[in-house]
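BUG: 3D viewer hangs when loading the predicted structure for this chain

Environment: internal workstation, default settings.
Expected: structure renders.
Actual: progress bar stalls at 90%.

Input used:
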Amino acid sequence: MHAREATETDAELLLGWRNDPRTRQSSRSTAVVALDEHLAWLRGVLADPDRLLLVVEHEDAPVGTVRFDRRDGDGWEVSITLAPESRGRGLSGAVLAEGERAAWERLGVRVVLAAVHQDNTASAKLFEHAGYAEAAPAVSGFRQLRKTLS
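Structure tokens produced before the viewer hung:
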């Protein structure tokens, strides 16, 4: 696994993953996103020093994306999306771990937060196996998890 910082040339790839029905089902926003809206969002993320968007590759092919958004204090919220064709291959743990490693190295991220939809058992298992623990009561149907990187 190797994480690289996303670029504008990744726009269509990331939009396809974002608009996948299973991805939307577990997202805070479940609407289909148009290309122009996605490009504006992507440009904003890439220019923001408080955000890190990574594309994780396995065997030279992109298999997922991990994004870190600075929150209050020293916490960074993580979001992970696997490419639809990468699901069911046992890659999610490695994609998350590679994202965490890259965030630690690039930004010194130590505290990672995750908001996991209460109905998303696969994501809950992923984060629990990766060492995340309940940090606060659920908010709007999303469990609040936390991990300290070392």
